[in-house]
Design brief:
Blueprint (H helix, E strand, L loop, with lengths): L4 E6 L29 H10 L7 E6 L3 H7 L8 E4 L5 H15 L4 E6 L3 E2 L2 H17 L3 E6 L10 E4 L8 E7 L4 H10 L2 E11 H11 L1 H8 L10 H8 L8 H6 L5 E5 L4 E2 L4 H7 L8 E3 L2 E5 L5 E3 L5 E5 L4 E5 L4 E5 L6 H12 L5
Parallel strand pairs: 1-2, 1-4, 2-3, 6-10, 12-14, 13-15, 14-16
Antiparallel strand pairs: 4-9, 5-11, 6-9, 7-8, 7-9, 8-10, 16-17
Helix pairs in contact: 3-6, 3-7, 6-7
Length: 359
C-alpha cells in the first residue's frame, strides 16, 4: 500500500432529509441505512482502506461526533479524528486537514470523500482514484470524479468539461450550479456534462498553494498553526482560530477559481444517498415495488413505498402508494415520496411545536 496516499473522510453533516432516522445527535452516516450490516461511515472507511493505509485516513467531523467515530471505527486512533469546533463549510476543514498531512508527509496525495455515499464496484472506485492520484503526483493539478448522468437531475451540481478533451481525465471548463429541469436536459444533450459527486484528489502541496493563491486570509489563518499540528497544542490553536475562518465551500473557494482542474468520468455505480427517495432507488424491491429495511411487512394494495422500522417490527400497510413510512421509537413519519424535499421544513415544524429532542 502506498504510504504517500491519504484519505480525508468528511463526516460532519447532519443529513436532515433522512429525518427521523438521521438526527443532530446521530446523523445518517452513523446508521446502517440500507440494512447491509455496516453503517455508511464504516462502509466508506473500508472502501478507502483497500488502497490507503489505515493510519493515513483522517476523519473530519464535528466535535459532538468524536465518540461515535471512535466507536464505529475501532481501527482509528484519536489523532486521526480531525474535529471542527464550529461549522464553517468544506473549505476550512479541507485546508486544515491538508496542512496536517503536509506536515506529516510533504509528498502526500489525498482524496476528500463524503462518508455517506454508496458505491458498489469498489475495485473500479479504487482504480479511478489511483488514476487521479498518479496525475496529481506528477502535475500541479486538482482532480475530481464525475458521474455520467442517467437522467436530467436538478438536485446535483454539474461539471462541464472541454469537448476536445482526450479519453480518460478531461480538462474541466467550469462547474455549474444545480440547474432547472430544462437546463439539465440541455446539459445531457450536449454530452460533456457530469454530475459533481464531491470527490476530490490532489497533492497536499497543490491544494495548499491553491489556498495561498485564491484564499489568502484563510491560508494565513491556518498556516500559522503549522508548529502546533499533530502535537498536543493543536486542539488549543484550532479552538481559538477555527471559528475565525470564513464560511465557504471548497467549490467557491478553490474550484471555481482554479484553471488546472481535471475530471475523470467514474467507472463505478454511485448514489449520494441524499434523500429517502435516493435510498428507495438503491434498495431491492418486493413484488409490489416496496423497498423494506428491517421490517416484516404485510402489504395490501400498497406499492412504491419506502418502509423502515426498528429491527423485525411487523408493519401492515394497506392502500398507500409512493409513501415514505419510517417508524422510530418516538417518531412515526408517513409522508409522500413526491414531497421528500419538504422533510427539512417538516423537521423545523416538529422542533418548533414539540422541541429539539425530536430533531
Amino acid at each position: 500500500m502506498n504510504k504517500n496516499y491519504y484519505a480525508v473522510l468528511m463526516a460532519g453533516g447532519v443529513g436532515s432529509r433522512f429525518w427521523p432516522i438521521s438526527t443532530t445527535e446521530n446523523p445518517k452516516q452513523f446508521h446502517d441505512m440500507l440494512g447491509a450490516g455496516d453503517t455508511l461511515i464504516q462502509k466508506t472507511f473500508k472502501r478507502l482502506n483497500k488502497f490507503v493505509p489505515t493510519e493515513n485516513i483522517l476523519i473530519l467531523t464535528n466535535e459532538r461526533y468524536n465518540d461515535l467515530v471512535l466507536e464505529q471505527l475501532p481501527l482509528v486512533k484519536q489523532e486521526q479524528v480531525v474535529l471542527e469546533p464550529a461549522m464553517r463549510n468544506t473549505a476550512p476543514c479541507i485546508l486544515y486537514a491538508a496542512l496536517k498531512i503536509q506536515k506529516m508527509n510533504p509528498n502526500g496525495v489525498m482524496i476528500v470523500a463524503p462518508s455517506d455515499h454508496w458505491i458498489e464496484d469498489e475495485e473500479a472506485f479504487a482504480a479511478d482514484v489511483t488514476t487521479c492520484f498518479k496525475k496529481c503526483e506528477k502535475e500541479a493539478v486538482l482532480c475530481t470524479l464525475g458521474i455520467t448522468p442517467s437522467f436530467p437531475n436538478t438536485g446535483f451540481g454539474y461539471i462541464e468539461y472541454e469537448k476536445q478533451s482526450d479519453a480518460g481525465l478531461k480538462k474541466v471548463h467550469q462547474f455549474r450550479e444545480k440547474p432547472d429541469y430544462d437546463t439539465a436536459k440541455e446539459f445531457l444533450a450536449q454530452g460533456n456534462f457530469l454530475w459533481n459527486a464531491g470527490i476530490f484528489m490532489w497533492s497536499v502541496t497543490t491544494i495548499v498553494s491553491a489556498f495561498e493563491s485564491f484564499q489568502k486570509d484563510q491560508y494565513e489563518l491556518f498556516k500559522a498553526g503549522m508548529p502546533y499540528y499533530n502535537t498536543t497544542d493543536e486542539a488549543a490553536f484550532i479552538k481559538e482560530n477555527y471559528p475565525k475562518a470564513a464560511n465557504i465551500s471548497i467549490d467557491y473557494a478553490i474550484l471555481e477559481n482554479s484553471k488546472s482542474i481535471f475530471v475523470l468520468p467514474a467507472t463505478f455505480d454511485w448514489n449520494d444517498l441524499g434523500t429517502w427517495g435516493s435510498l428507495y432507488d438503491k434498495l431491492d424491491k418486493d413484488t409490489h415495488n416496496n423497498a423494506v429495511v428491517n421490517s416484516k411487512v404485510i402489504a395490501a394494495d400498497a406499492s412504491g413505498n419506502m418502509i423502515r422500522s426498528s429491527k423485525d417490527k411487523v408493519v401492515v400497510v394497506d392502500g398507500l402508494k409512493d409513501y415514505i413510512i419510517v417508524d422510530k421509537e418516538e417518531v412515526l413519519l408517513i409522508y409522500p415520496k413526491a414531497k421528500e424535499q419538504d422533510i427539512k421544513q417538516v423537521l423545523n415544524t416538529v422542533k418548533e411545536k414539540f422541541g429539539d429532542q425530536y430533531a
